[in-house]
Each structure stands twice: as structure tokens, then as C-alpha cells.
Amino acid sequence: MIPINSTIGLVAMFAAATATMPLPVPTPGEIKNFKDWSVGCDNGGNCQAVSLAADKERDQFDNWGGPIVITRTSDKDDILKIRALIQNDSLDRYQIFVDGRLVDTGPLVQGNYPIEIVGEDAVKVSRAIIRGYKLKVVGPDGENLTNISLSGSSAALRYMDARQKRTYTRTALVAKGRRIFRPLESEIPTITVQQWAPAKRIPATTEIVDLIEHSVCKDDRFGVVEDQIYPLGQKDDRYRALVLISCGSGAYNFSSTAYIGEIKGNEKNGASWAFRPATYDLPPKWGGKERLPLLVNPHWDGETQILSSYAKGRGLGDCGNAERFIWDGEQFRLLEAREMRECRGAYEWITTWRAQYMKS
Which of these, 42, 48, 150, 248, could form a disulfide with 220 (CB 3.0-4.6 Å)? Predict the structure, then answer.
């Protein structure tokens, strides 16, 4: 697509930027579904298995208080953790039963994860989950907190074993053997970012209006319209800004497309802002080949210069995809990707990509 300019075309420095060598493209991990469980791993080998509300039950949320999440790292620390995302405001203890047999009990704590099981206790509960059919979490007097179908849990954890190359090793949860587990040698990429000196200068309203009038979003601006403009900093006498143009909205998703503006000199002397569509090492999932990538429910953190997108598959927020990008000085680079394809009560989305960054 031809870049849009509020005046006469893109400035030469944008053309120079696009001529640089392409950066490696992130490759987020794949999400697998096994009956009532979803599982996936990120590029560092860390995996998550998440329970889903039973698909075959007509009223699948009647006894559903939240999912069970099993996470495991692939490094030498080998951290296995089971968490329950149940809603509770009054009870102080829990009990976990698998097929009517008590497998764990302990105190409920405040926070997003009232139940967190680690170490050998997590191994014990995981193996009960693998062998079981139904899991139930109750309060001290039998109060129902959540009911979990274990159909597909064995396959999900077997997949986790395989992805971390634990199959037939002493650390495997499903296909346990005598082999020695050797931690994966996966290097999380480090992104080098160049942030300009802080500045407050942004384009004038008239220039933003002109940009919108020539943008692909012009005909999609209905419902809630909220354009956002943020300074990206100053280098010598050059200034940059991030412009998020509203590009359509629905009941719970509000789409925007991002432009990068730059100006050199003073408007009083005839200088004007030039704009180009923001580029990404891996574009957000919304949009397409014939239009610019769309950020959904975007959020900008000016201090870290991280741009987030959070697209909900439905209003409950139990499915969708989310990305976090950092501005490296020329384009947005993927820091984190999370996804949940099944809309079945899993508010914990699976991490499929992660990176770190450092300032140059």
C-alpha cells in the first residue's frame, strides 16, 4: 500500500529506513486443543495447559468457577506449577478432589490466583489429573468453587512432555521413563531499542484531520471514534509521533491503525509532518493483505514505548489474542504474544512468544 502523507509525500529518511536489512520474523508457538483442554508452548520452550468448560454440557458454565492452569518451564529450574483462577471473596481454604478422592488442600490467598500448587505437590496433582475424569474444587464446608472436565488432560500433558523433550525421561508427567532430562537450549531474543530524547511535540489537529481524510479508515469511522496522538521523542531537530487512528468499532472491540509521523524544522518556517504506516516485525493478527494491520483495544505506555493490542473473541474475554510490541526506533517489534482459540471459560490465555529488550 502507498504510504500516506499529509503534505506531498514521505520524507527521504523513511525510504532509507525501509532499505535496511530485514529483521528475523518472530514465530509464535502453535495452540493445540485436546477435547476439554488447550495447550501451547512459547519460543523458549515454556508450556501451559489450560482446562476448558466441558463442551458437551448444555449449561457448561453452571458449575464453572474458572479454569485450572498447568505451567512448566523447560530450563534447568524445571518449575511445575498448578494454578486455579477461581472467584472467591470469603472462603479461606480449598480442597481438590479428583474422581471423589482428595488430592490436595491448603489456604486460599488473595490475588488473581487464589490457589497455587508447586513442587512435588504439583507433580502429585498433575498425575491425578492425568488418570482422572473429573476434578472438583470446594471450600472447607463443601462449597462448590469450580468443576473441571479432565477429558483431554492426559493428551495435553503428553504433548507438553514431547515439546519439552521429556518423553521417557524421569521428569515426564505422562510417558515416564529412565532417561535423563536435558533442559532445552532455547535463547529468548533480545531486542535492541533506540529511544529518542523525551519531547512533547505532536502534529497539529489540522494535520491529523488531513491524514484521516486520506487514510483507509475514512469509511470505517462509525460508533465510538477516539484518535490518539503520542510523542515519540526528539533527535537533534527531528521529532516523531505515534498516531492511532480509529478504524471501526464493535460491542467490545475498538480497532485502530498506527502511523508514525516525523517533522524536521519549525512549522512557522513551512515545515510539515510526514506520515507513514507503522511497520512490525510480525503484524497484529487483525487486518489483512489489502489493508493495514489493526490494533484492537490498543494501549500505549509512553515510558517504555510499548504498544499493546488486546482482541477479545467475545465480551467475556475468555478467548482471543493479544500482543505487546516495543518501538525500537524504526518499527514495532513483538515482545509477547498470547492466544486462546476456544471460547470456553479460559480467562488465562496461552503465551506463544516472548522476547526481552535492552536500550542501546
Answer: 248
